[in-house]
Amino acid sequence: MSEAVQERFLKAGQIAYQAIDYTCQRVKAHTSLLDIAETGERKIFELGGKPAFPINISVNHHAAHYTPSYGDSAKVPKKALVKIDLGVHVDGYIADTARTVIIGGDAEMERLREAAEAGLRAAIETIRSRIRVWEVSKEIHKAISGFGVRPIENLTGHTIERFNLHAGISVPAIAPTSERVLSPRLKEDMVIAIEPFTTYSPTPRISNIGEAQIFGFAQHKNPKDPNLRHLYSQMKLSFAQLPFAARWLSEFVPPEEINSTLSSLMGERCIHGYAVLGLHDRHFVAQAEHTVIVTKDGCIVTTVNQ
Question: Which active-site residues does the annotation give?
Answer without folding.
Answer: 85, 96, 158, 166, 195, 289
